Amino acid sequence: MDNYLKATPFFNYNHPAVSAWLQEQLAGVPDDPVEQMKALYLAVRDGIQYNPYVFRAEPHTLSASYALESGETYCIPKAVLLGAAARALGIPSRLGLADVRNHLSSPKLIEWLQSDVFRMHGFIELYLNGRWVKATPAFNQQLCQMMKVDPLEFDGVNDSVFQEFTEDGHAHMEYINDHGVFDDVPFDFILEGLRAAYGHLFTPQGEAGRVDGSLEQDMAGGS
User: Fold this and answer.
1) How confident is the model at residue 192 (pLDDT cuts 50, 70, 90)?
2) Rounded to a whole number, what is the largest CA-CA distance in the chain?
3) Distance between CA atoms of 134 and 161, rounded to whole angstroms?
4) Is 93 within 8 Å of 86 (Cβ atoms)?
5) Which one-letter DSSP state was computed for residue 202?
6) What is the pLDDT of residues 49-81, one digit of tens each?
7) Stated pTM of the model
8) Which of 109-123, 166-180, 204-218 bottoms out in mean pLDDT, i.e. has the lowest?
9) What is residue 223's predicted lDDT score, i.e. its pLDDT?
10) 118: left (phi over 0), alpha (psi -120 to 50) or beta
11) Pair 91, 127: CB distance under 8 Å
12) Element (H, E) at 178
């Protein structure tokens, strides 16, 4: 279990910003691992805006501290932030990666990806009460409301991985390929998978092309 408790350049819970945030979020929370992770899950889910357009092919942008400093990011860094917080509390965590088909997205995002398959979707597994439990703090509450999907909850006992259906019963998300779990962020593996799926998003120099906006703006009808 030692590897799932280590601080790394990605799971950098020893960063001052992460330490200060952790202390702030746990103020008044009972000294119970499940209650602590439930509170931290909500803090990551709703305190960091989900925005896939901010992806950069730079390792530091997948770290816990960068997720906090930027205030908006996508599924992998949000999962890493939650996992880093867990490790700081002595709770083992590991990153899970999978490909998912997202049936509810914006036309701009689908056009940008040229696909409705999201490669390298990230979630976190936490070791609580003697077993691994999945948590997915990706989609913030405001975005879910705009998508007419209930925000994904986490009770610390049951796996929390996706909203299968929207409020009106339409399919929302399905997992189509499991890449496994990792004790640290496999940056090269992630980048290789993204380049293979979305080569058009990268410049000849290997950098990720930049795009303005956010998914919330898309859903609100903004440019």
Assistant:
1) very high
2) 51
3) 6
4) yes
5) B
6) 999 999 999 999 999 999 999 999 999 999 999
7) 0.93
8) 166-180
9) 45
10) beta
11) yes
12) strand 173-182
Q: Which amino acid is at 23?
A: Q
DSSP state of 28: T
Buried b (16+ CB within 10 A) or exposed e, 99-113: bbbbebbbebbeebb
CA dist list (Å): 78 to 52, 132, 200, 221: 11, 18, 25, 25
Q: Look up residue 173 and give its two tokens.
A: 């998300």
Least confident of 60-69, 130-139, 140-149, 175-184: 140-149
Structure tokens at 14: 């020893």
The length of the chain is: 223
168 token code pair: 């009106």
Q: What is the pLDDT at residue 211?
A: 79
147 burial type by CB count under 10 A (0-12 exposed, 13-18 middle, 19+ buried): buried
Beta-strand relationship, 49-50 and 72-73: parallel
| Phi and psi torsions of 204, nearest 5° | -60, -25
